[in-house]
Amino acid sequence: MIKKIIFPLLAICFASCTKYLDKQPDNLLTEEMVWQTKANAEGYLYNTYSHMYLTDGGDFATMGASDESHVSIGTTAARQMVAGNWSPASGYFNNWGSMYAGIRKTFVFEQNIDKVPSNQLSDELKAQYKAEVRFLRGYYYFFLLRQFGPFVLVKDIMSRNDDYNKYPRASFDECAAYINEMMDAAAAGLPVAWESISNNGRPTKGTCLTIKAKVAQLAASELWNGNPNFANFKNQDGKPLAPASKNPDRWRDAAAAAKAVIDLNAYKLFVNTDNGGSSFNPYESVRDVHTTAWNDEIILGVVTWWRWGFTKCASPQPGGYGMYCATQNLVDAFAMKNGRIISDPASTYQETGFADDNQAESWGHKKGQWNMYANREPRFYAFIQYNGKTIVPATTPDERNRYSSGGNADGTGRIEFYYSGKSGQRENGSNSITGYMPLKRISSTSNIYTELVPHKAPFILFRYAEILLDYVEALNEYDPSNPDIVKYLNQVRTRAGLPGIETVYGGAVGNKDEMRKHILRERMVELCFEGDRYWTLTRRLLLGKAEYSAVYALDVNAPDNGQGFSFTGLYTRKLLQQRYWKDKMYLFPIGQGDMERDRALVQNPGW
């Protein structure tokens, strides 16, 4: 008898997902085999988790699509996007099909897990796993909502014979309500914290509350809170897909949702003493939150991710690709160590000249480095690789010397981003075209030249610092005099080694517009290269403004004529790119193939 194969047997959730189904490793198992053993059922569950891995450090949001970063290789999808070279047919980061494939798997799992014999899988584990897939379903729908806006809301497995043309998009509020429903259902079956480290990476009650907070934040922000550009965003039958009027109470709801995560008392900001340090060190604290195996700041993380690939792309030559670049925009956002921004006359910032001595703190600037990088806050040195700074992913003096030209080979491995340098324009076809590269997530125990990259730390999708910033941002919008704004903003600043906001910018306290600037700057710095900058600028309708689409860099093309580190022409600010923008780009287009498969779909405005 010809056995029925599980994927053809089980009805698909959405027609565009079919091309993904044939690629799964369990497509040779019969339906009976999958649900007869614990191992096979858990294998299906872990495969359902796999769709979370689309954000692994190299997607458009983390690298290349906002003003914090740029990609050196012009043919990449992120570069094509910011140049305006994309359409519904391009397929750039088209996660629509993959998310629906993941959603379909959650239904299949939930409806079949009870078939596993009780001597193979306990009722307690079955209930836990059902809670996990409900979380995944809500998370995948949240992923769609953030990238594409209102989605086709499927609440069950569809029949293969279903007429897909009768499934239009749900409204934004309906989509948000369903995500919240899934998070509530999942939270009821999940713990506040897992007792065993083997469960790291699974959702908890706090993870569910976090997704609800992110949905509330999206609903409160300008993109979805009475956006006039969406006035005609409707289904074919005239049903509006976006909220028609602005509701300031949505910011109150967003603040309450974020505060619920805080009040759970399940998370804390990581500090280096949590990792064995003898005394508090802000530099090690902000650095190591991303390189330790697991810590109490992480709300949701991908346990196994391609850290080697990210390190390779974010490291300079030789050994690295020099592909991911930080921008001058981001460098300028970091404060001085006295907590003041560089445009503040009281900040002590100097734009030109070389530093006369080493910074007192071991993690700070060194004598002879450009004054632009002197006396900056600890996060700057933990997150940014700049010209003359010691290479991080090289562990010995000999390995560090590989990054140095002959006269600079002193065992320190100072990165040479100037034109004739080992990581400069003349030497490489792939190099930093801004004069900067990211250091966040790069382990000091790596050696990218020998391909040694440790894999112990997760890729963080959400962490507690983001929730604190979510809370103060929302609170400031509807209750700017609330003392919690200073209290929780200062928790992030204190961990970063900065004085309280009220001590350096007291005039901003209670001033909604001024405090908003400080909060958004704090988000840009604290959460750089984590995707938040892109999503913040889109949800707040800022990415299309000229000041956010203008990307600045150092003059890496200026020939230094053998001057090396003494060459000052490198430090001339240049407009690298005035990025293309149309307001339609606040949402991704639904792929042309998906539009053709479901004739009830309406395309996102402008596409």
Largest sheet: 2 strands, antiparallel
Helical segment tally? 22
Find the structural class using helix and strand composition.
Answer: mainly alpha
Report the principal-axis shape: globular
Rg computed from alpha carbons, rounded to a whole number of angstroms: 25 Å
Strand content: 5-15%
Order of helices and strands: HHHHEHHHHHHHEHEHHEHEEHHHHHHEEH
Number of E-type strands: 8
Percent helix, as a range, is: 25-40%
Strand line-up of the largest beta sheet:
1-3
Poorly predicted runs: 1-27
Compute the average pLDDT: 92
**Span of the ends, CA to CA:** 50 Å
Description of the molecule:
By secondary structure, this protein is mostly helical. About 35% of the residues lie in helices and about 5% in strands. The protein has 22 helices and 8 strands. The chain has helices spanning about 5-10, 20, 30-35, 40-50, 75-80, 95-110, 125-150, 170-185, 205-220, 250-265, 280-290, 305-315, 330-335, 380-385, 395-400, 465-480, 485-495, 500-505, 510-525, 530-540, 545-550, 590-595; strands spanning about 70, 300, 325, 385, 435-440, 460-465, 550-555, 575-580. Strands 1-3 form a two-stranded antiparallel ribbon. The protein is globular and about 70 Å long. Residues about 1-25 have low confidence and may be disordered.
